[in-house]
Amino acid sequence: MTAAGVRPRVQRPGARAPDGLPAPRRRGVLGRVPVLVWLFLAVPLAVEVFWVFWPAFNSFSLSFTSWKGVGAAKPVGLDNYTKLFADPIFATALRNNVIWVIGFGGLSVVGGLGLAVALNRPGRGVGFYRSAIYLPMVISLAVTGLFWRVMYQPDGPIDAGLGALGLGAWSRQWLADPDIALYAVLIAAVWRQVGYIMVLYLAGLKGTDPTLEEAAAVDGANAWQRFWKIVMPQLRGVNTVVFAVTVIDSLRTFDIVWAMTRGGPYNMTQLLSTYMFQQGFTLVNLGYGSAIAVVIFLLAVAFIITYLVRQSRAEES
User: E strands of the chain, at which residues?
Assistant: First the structure.
């Protein structure tokens, strides 16, 4: 009831407006989206389903079979996974992937964050330095691998540089030494990745509130305290993106390793991705290769979910 004691009229579906015209129907949220927008969303979704999700589903199903690419696949149950854990090359690849995730992720993040902080200020030549550091990211991983393969060759630029510095005794067969080949390839991968991480952190630093840092400086906080206590909490969203990107890139790294060493010498630079390619497409053991692909997927999901859970718990506390 209103103040005048008159009950307001409720417009019912199909009722007519006071002028005798049909009342306009309310459109839902989905109905307000133009058909053209749905079309633009449906086309990439269909491509994604066909080229990504359907092959991924097939990898799961193929991992329980033995298939050489022709004829019908033979179901083998969990035999492929049983063989994985008895395969010494798979154990080497898994260990190398752990080293790769830690080294590649750690060095890329620390280097990218340090460069972002150093270049997040106006100055002469800052734009040039940013572009130069990001430039390797424009080059494909395969070309990067070939470039560093030339750098590492005997009497190449790296050995020549060491000789010019009086460190010629450090020269060696960088990609042929089983003890250091993986780390030599790792340096090449970090050299390319660090510019990408720098750009992500630069974008995050532009969104921080400088007044909070100024207030902390007035209260007597030094530069490190201001960065760790004021700036880093504001980069929590960027850290999540960087972690996810780094872990996924670490587990799917293939091009640069294949271009530089093809998993050698003596399988000492094998990663899960290179061993999967070798088993699936070189030896045409598609069931076994699919099992390795499933392991890569599960590792990526486990890393990312664990990180997100820890982050959410830290926010709650």
Answer: 65-66, 74-75
Q: Residues 141, 256: contact at Cβ < 8 Å?
A: yes
3-state DSSP assignment of residue 208: coil
Q: What is the pLDDT of residue 314?
A: 74
Q: Measuring CA to CA, which residue among 315, 231, 255, 290 is closest to residue 73? A: 290
More confident residue, 48 or 82: 82
Confidence at 26, pLDDT banded by 50, 70, 90:
low
Using the Cα atoms of residue 183, residue 187, residue 190 and residue 192 in order, give the sign of their dihedral: negative
Out of 24-28, 48-52, 179-183, least confident range: 24-28
**Cβ-Cβ contacts under 8 Å for 253 (sequence gap 6 or more):** 100, 104, 141, 189, 271, 273
Establish whether the linkage from the previous residue to 265 is cis, with ω within 30° of 0.
yes
Instruction: Indicate if the pLDDT at residue 28 is higher than 90.
Output: no
Indicate the length of the chain as a whole number.
317
Tokens 């899960």, residue located: 272
Q: Residue 300, Cα to own-chain centre: how many angstroms?
A: 9
Torsion of CA 206, 316, 114, 220, to 10 degrees: 80
